[in-house]
Amino acid sequence: xxxxxxxxxxxxxxxxxxxxxxxxxxxxxxxxxxxxxxxxxxxxxxxxxxxxxxxxxxxxxxxxxxxxxxxxxxxxxxxxxxxxxxxxxxxxxxxxxxxxxxxxxxxxxxxxxxxxxxxxxxxxxxxxxxxxxxxxxxxxxxxxxxxxxxxxxxxxxxxxxxxxxxxxxxxxxxxxxxxxxxxxxxxxxxxxxxxxxxxxxxxxxxxxxxxxxxxxxxxxxxxxxxxxxxxxxxxxxxxxxxxxxxxxxx
Length: 250
Description:
- The protein is an alpha/beta fold.
- The chain has helices at 27-42, 64-72, 103-109, 126-129, 134-143, 146-155, 161-167, 176-191, 195-211, 213-219, 229-240; strands at residues 3-8, 11-16, 48-53, 92-96, 100-101, 113-117, 121-123, 159-160, 172-174.
- The strands form two sheets. The chain has a six-stranded mixed sheet with strand order 1-2-3-4-6-9, with helices on both faces. Strands 5-7-8 form a three-stranded mixed sheet.
């Protein structure tokens, strides 16, 4: 198995599990990761997913050793296309435990929230390897800025965890031992909220990236009128009564 899928109550923990290869992407990992995301979407009581890596790396990108062997044999690695992040309607968190390169950075960008260990580094080596990576650079520009994306995409320069925080690639930097507990803490917190509200927020932000914020804001006028009224009432009463809300979960 190249990917582990575990359930911790309402949280799905997805772990890239090729530590001997720094969790590099090969045919098995790409197929099993796609299956893990599909399983997460299919399980109604799985409300939030956390993606992380086993060992000292998050994901080293394409497995260049296997890619080189495939080239020598006259073929390309047959990688399974990953789900478009827009197809994953539930919240996702990347817990970046170490180096992330190329496709590994794409996995981070595919998640809604990214936190990392202070030992993490990020790099986009596509140009150096003669491989297409424009779609990853575009995703990075959406998350950070045009200039930061071009800097990483054109130079292949590694950036450290605190630089990733400064440019907005990640939202928190933590000591390695605190990373996964914090990711699970965030996931459990989100899982305890009103899920129609959580998913509406995500869906509208995804829509805004596609059509622009002005059109998305126009669409969202009165958006909360479609939320379950029992959640609205429970959230209001819980605040007034100084207690945690008790939402009915899927």
